[in-house]
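MODEL INPUT / OUTPUT PAIR
PAIR INDEX: 1
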Amino acid sequence: MDKLYEDTLLLDFYGQLLTERQFEIMDMHFNNDYSLGEIAEQLNISRQGVYDNIKRGKALLKRMEEKLGLVEKFVKQKNKAQEILINIKSLSKNGICEEDIITLKRIEEGIIQIIEG
């Protein structure tokens, strides 16, 4: 999994367990793509302070994931849903009644909603 994507997922799942300041800094960095310098300037702290907050915050998020495993479960479920969607789309529609085709389309749409969140 891409490191930035993993960090963003960890923040999404466990971010509210951080201090308000850590969450604010990490949100600016990972979700809003601010540089350390930009965050430091906006919050009137040093770049080192920003870096330290991100480092401590990431360590805490990783510990939470090690204990709870919510991100890993989420990624596995999403991958499984994508696999199911591929299998449904590969079904031959020949010989299937119109009602079943409509049902398959609704299932596809439901799975797409799950995947896209």
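PAIR INDEX: 2
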Amino acid sequence: MRTTAHAAEAGDLIVIAGHHAGEAERIGEILEVLGELPHESYRVRWDDDRESVFRPGSDATIKHASRRPASSRAK
């Protein structure tokens, strides 16, 4: 997986850093990208199975799902 600040696609993971010492990070799967850069937001299914619309801040990291090039996909 590649990691960037933003610019995600459905299937990527979003990781939110804990805000206090000892607080666990929050992880969610991006289900849908809403809007366009630089004002994108995401419909996310979080690790507790809740869904929400989320606009990432500086504490968010996108982990891009591995994607095979179109030429290597099964036909």
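PAIR 2 NOTE: The chain is about 0% helix and 40% strand.
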